[in-house]
Write a structure and sequence with these properties.
It comes from Penaeus vannamei. This is Lectin. It holds the Pfam family Lectin_C. The chain has about 180 residues and is α+β, with helices and mostly antiparallel strands. It folds into 2 domains: about 35 residues, no CATH class; about 140 residues, Mannose-Binding Protein A, subunit A (Mannose-Binding Protein A, Chain A). It is built from 3 helices and 13 strands, in the order ββββββαβααββββββ. Strands 4, 5, 7, 8, 9, 10, 11 and 13 form an 8-stranded mixed β-sheet that branches. A 3-stranded antiparallel β-sheet has the order 1-2-3, with no helix packed on it. The longest helix has 14 residues.
Length: about 180
């Protein structure tokens, strides 16, 4: 009986199997074929969604010492941590961050804490901290934002019970009790 090759792309990606049927003998070999894994995030960053290295910092916790800071100070703190203020250009990333903040900082969620992120208005053009253009029509922004007179961005809770957050624009001298850094 001639050899017959049957490819079976079964199991879960990234595993695949090739079955060789020869003279009623079944030999099954398994080969791992996966895309390169994202590099692990260096401490103190955490991996979100297997794609992003993020660090959520509460500079002024509800029950402890600390002071709110302005956007430029938050940007400098992220730089000290070898990162930049986070790019929030993706609904999945926003949802993962919101869930993490809700679980790790429930008092701050109920208190309506805000967090600086990396969109800024430079010469009338909104860009992210990684130099990518900001999608101004995105549903990640509060309606009517960003406003032309504002220069910086922050995440604000719209629903304090469930922590749903949106991005708003604000003046550069605005204070916030938290910020989110990202390693690219």
């Amino acid at each position: 009986m001639p050899s017959r090759f049957i490819r079976c792309y079964c199991c879960m990606y990234p595993l695949w199997a090739v079955a060789l049927v020869k003279n009623d003998l079944l030999t099954l070999s398994k080969r791992v074929s996966s895309p390169p894994a994202p590099p692990g995030c260096p401490a103190p960053y955490k991996t979100f969604g297997g794609r992003w290295c993020l660090l959520v910092v509460v500079a002024a916790p509800d029950n402890g010492p600390g002071e709110p800071l302005v956007w430029n100070d938050a940007r400098a703190k992220c730089g000290e941590a070898n990162g930049a203020l986070a790019v929030i250009d993706n609904h999945d990333k926003l949802q993962l961050l919101s869930k993490f903040i809700d679980e790790k900082y429930p008092a701050e969620t109920k208190g309506g804490w805000t967090y600086f992120v990396g969109a800024q208005n430079v010469n009338s053009k909104w860009i992210w901290s990684n130099s990518a253009d900001v999608e101004l029509q995105s549903n990640l922004w509060v309606p009517s934002h960003p406003q032309p007179q504002n220069e910086i961005s922050m995440l604000v809770p719209i629903d304090k019970t469930h922590g749903r957050r949106y991005i708003i624009s604000n003046a550069p001298n605005t204070f916030a009790p938290g910020y989110i850094c990202e390693r690219f």
